[in-house]
Amino acid sequence: MSIPKRNRARSLIDLFQRTSSQEQTGGISSTTSTIDQLLNDAGSFGLYQKVQFFLVGLLAVLPAMTAFNYVFIAATPDHRCQLNLTNFTDTFIIQSPEHQKYINQYIPISLKERKCYIYEENFKGKNLIKCSKWVFNKKFYNTTISTEWNLVCDQLHLKAITQNAYIMGTSGSFLTGIMSDKLGRRTTMYSLILLMVIVLNATQIIMYSNMSNAKKLIVFTISRFLTGFAQTTYSITLVLLLEMTSANRRVLASNILSYFYTLGTIKFFEKKNLDKIFLIDI
Q: Which terminus has fewer CB within 10 Å in the chain: N or C?
């Protein structure tokens, strides 16, 4: 049975008075239990908490979108070395019997070697040499950072660096925790969301500029680091919502926030036609 509003306000005053008298007389009181009692008397999961969960939950959608998009924007499709043909343009898909003949002649049979090596014709026979151009299977992906910047073979480690930069950014959660205590949880949360929006939009503009691929890779790596740092806003939202919910409703509160986080992944995982994914999804 819920407490009437007038009696509820009076009960809060009585609770503060009892807590103050216990502190003055040297009585032992638990801060945690006092906060839980206040929340129970004021309403542990009322309209205020529900509105806050909806508004803050919307902010959790954006970190989820950026957390899982790397699976698509950095995917490495099946590929092989590109043939230097003058009569037609080489593609991963076999175009004709003549095309198949050139592939059999210059591309190694081994699945591992065909991705990084090609046969070089000389007077003594065939020698394997490293290739500098590749053709990719575009059945599932049209453009990714791997296909755009040739992050394969000897350049494969550069792709790993971009993901490691993101992980290093997420480790900055200890710093955002200090910021939330000093500046406030909402101020820190809004600042991180603003940082994420600015970084993502600036990255999109640079990705479609005339900048060289090497410089774009550097910008993308920095962007991944900053995005990972801004991603820590999810932990702040979780703490903020748990602090305004009583102990018996905190499991429900964390699950509701997880539902909003899951909504952010739908943008990517519900795509049935993955060849529409471009660098703009960064």
A: N
| 44-75+149-281 to CATH, choices 1.10.10.10, 3.40.50.1000, 1.20.1250.20, 3.80.30.20 | 1.20.1250.20
pTM of this structure: 0.71
Domain boundaries, the chain: 1-39, 44-75+149-281, 79-137
Rounded Cα distance, 176 and 154, in Å:
36
Residues 22-57: pLDDT tens digits?
Answer: 555 544 444 445 666 666 666 667 777 778 778 777
CA proximity to 264, closest of 52, 70, 62, 54: 62
CB 77 within 8 A of CB 122: no
d(CA 264, CA 162): 22
Of 7-21, 69-83, 129-143, the range with the lowest mean pLDDT is 7-21
In this prediction, what percent of the chain has a pLDDT beyond 70?
76
